[in-house]
Specification:
globular, 207 residues, alpha/beta, 3-stranded mixed sheet, 49% helix
Length: 207
């Protein structure tokens, strides 16, 4: 399956960057340190209070991770302390916008917050979290994992400790239509990259 994050990158790419984004999404991009953080974050939110301590200890020889993890850990723990999520797991669901394209939709937080069910994807990258990315991510989350009536779907900007949601159903429906339609463009670019012959997607850890 395709990485959820890399498919979002493709949806938001313009011009020549679309070709590069399609190639990255379909060729098996290496797992980065953000993916490792997200996996540990799910364990922390599920009640493993020492998860982050082990993560830092395991990263002591990796200068990049030691630089990136502390602000992420601070942001997530502060958000969790404020909202007290009662975690119910972190599922991975295959979402297929068209035949031949499968995206691994893997929210790191499926929890109840103040009595309301939430399905949340973590955003760990540096820089501003663009609103179009939130809208596309929430639309796909909502379609792939609808949850019980009243479920809130969102993207948590981990560094800022802020949950972004989308309230407009019409906007979500338009974003979902874009996500489905662009899968055709993805397949066309993938065909071009492989000379008209498309083999199986490369399996990889999803982030």
């Amino acid at each position: 399956p395709l990485s959820f994050s890399l498919y979002l990158d493709f949806l938001l790419a313009v011009g020549g960057a679309r070709f590069t984004a399609a190639k990255a999404a379909s060729s098996g991009a290496p797992v980065d340190c953000y993916g490792a953080f997200k996996a540990i974050a799910s364990r922390y939110l599920a009640g493993d209070g020492e998860a982050f301590e082990r993560l830092i200890a395991a990263s002591r020889d990796d200068a990049q991770r030691l630089r990136l993890y502390p602000p992420l850990i601070k942001g997530l723990t502060k958000w969790a302390e404020k909202h007290s999520p009662i975690a119910a797991g972190s599922p991975c669901v295959l979402w297929s916008p068209i035949e031949g394209v499968s995206v691994a939709v893997n929210p790191e937080i499926v929890a109840t917050i103040a009595g309301v069910p939430h399905v949340i994807k973590l955003h760990t990258r540096r820089g501003r979290l663009a609103r179009p990315r939130v809208e596309l991510a929430v639309a796909i989350l909502r379609d792939a994992i609808p949850g019980a009536p009243g479920t809130v779907h969102g993207v948590l900007d981990v560094r800022a400790g802020k949950l972004h949601t989308v309230n407009s159903v019409a906007l979500l429906e338009r974003s979902l239509a874009v996500a489905r339609a662009e899968a055709e463009a993805f397949m066309a670019l993938r065909l071009a990259q492989h000379g008209g012959v498309v083999g199986p997607l490369v399996d990889r850890a999803v982030t």
